[in-house]
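wait is this the right file?? whatever heres the structure
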């Protein structure tokens, strides 16, 4: 059984937080061989989007409200476990997270710092590349932005 949910930091259980941090470390630190400071003080003010299958976390990201990290809202720490890749779970998670951003912060752009090899993935959601490629913790990244759709009057 699968489920998607958005959880404020204050509602995370200790085991839920442990599972999130373990997945982030498994992929970003171990798999990508990239030691970095994951605990950056932004988790507490963020929402946490979790996709679980049979009570196991398969995909995750955090939704950062405007003003916490950037003037606009942001989606970050987007991650799927290795067995979940290629099955559409990352797309489901991104759709949920984008919709949550529009619901909570309707007049704000959504900013992401995407690993460069995932630019095409984020283009599927209409994110546009901004600025030149840069290295973050030794990995090529691109700033990308999604602007809210303006409703005709």
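ok assuming it is, sequence goes like this
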């Amino acid at each position: 059984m699968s489920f998607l949910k958005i959880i404020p930091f204050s509602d995370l259980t200790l085991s839920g937080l442990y599972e999130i941090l373990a997945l982030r470390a498994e992929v970003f630190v171990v798999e990508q061989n990239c030691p970095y400071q994951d605990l950056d003080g932004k988790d507490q003010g963020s929402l946490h989007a979790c996709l679980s299958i049979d009570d196991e976390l398969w995909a995750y990201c955090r939704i950062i409200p405007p003003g916490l990290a950037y003037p606009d809202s942001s989606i970050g720490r987007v991650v799927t476990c290795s067995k979940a890749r290629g099955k559409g779970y990352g797309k489901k998670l991104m759709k949920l997270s984008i919709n949550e951003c529009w619901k909570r912060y309707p007049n704000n752009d959504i900013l992401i710092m995407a690993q460069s090899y995932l630019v095409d993935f984020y283009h599927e959601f209409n994110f546009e590349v901004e600025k030149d490629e840069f290295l973050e913790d030794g990995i090529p990244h691109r700033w990308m932005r999604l602007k809210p759709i303006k409703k005709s009057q």
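Helices lie at 14-31, 89-104, 119-123. so i think its the right one actually
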